[in-house]
Amino acid sequence: MKILVTGAAGFIGSTASLRLLARGDEVVGLDNLNDYYSVQLKLDRLARLQSQAGFRFVKLDVADREGMAALFAAEKFDRVIHLAAQAGVRYSIQNPHAYVDSNLVGFINILEGCRHAKVAHLTYASSSSVYGGNTHMPFSEHHSVDHPVSLYAATKKANELMAHTYSHLYGLPTTGLRFFTVYGPWGRPDMALFLFTKAILEGRAIDVFNHGNMLRDFTYVDDIVEGVIRVSDRTATANPDYRPDTPDPATSNVPFRVFNIGNHDPVPLLDFIGAIEGALGMKAEKNLLPLQDGDVPATYADVEALENWVGFKPKTSIQDGIGRFVAWYRDYYRV
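The chain above was modelled as a monomer; its predicted structure follows.
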């Protein structure tokens, strides 16, 4: 198949593209290579892809309306995996307009492209952050998610609503995946695992928020990618049991689906740090700080719906996942 992967120079996008290429798909990888974090890291991820047969890179911003329309018109994609977004909860507090441009304007351009090009299935990244202030654990797709606590979360919830509208109006099959704290080799430098590893190796203290009283459903990148590709391969369909008098947020009477993808095993933050210390063979000095604005104390994914839909649920332990990340980090940075 010919598949558009947006955010192809990103952490998840580059890993997903490699998997698609390995099974013989043609991948058009799109990215704007912005400087939210190291452009060199993005270029190095791209270099892995450009050495593979069947990959083509397009440097383009999803917020570029004319450019995106022209791309869809020219390429005739079979499927789209939309992973490009302005990421980060805390960055959205200082730079809200970046999220509107990428996550809202960019997403409508993706939807319009899929609609006019008659793409068979759009799979897109949502986020566990949509659960916001919810405290009922584990988080289920069948719960209400109407109380986001960051603009980033609000844009991801908006993406789900926008996707449903296009599924309803135009019959476009759409599936959203709510990612839970993705980590692993080639990861993002603004994420905790990267920040902690770098600081510990440099002998600096790490900032531990909410005084360490955090639970996170850490999900290894290969598990995320396995879920993404399996979901992309199964086109969203209407739920025949959907009842509009008692609507289910995760399904509809149109080809629209939303799934959690997490490890279903929340880990205390201090245990996560302990696993990093074990992999590095070094102890961390900790600055215990209050909870940050826009953050939540706990995440925990109910993944029953995903397992029922595609026969898969993430399972990589943090010890294995962190060990692989630390090995990659030491090799990549020669430390």
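The CA atoms of residues 215 and 268 lie 5 Å apart.
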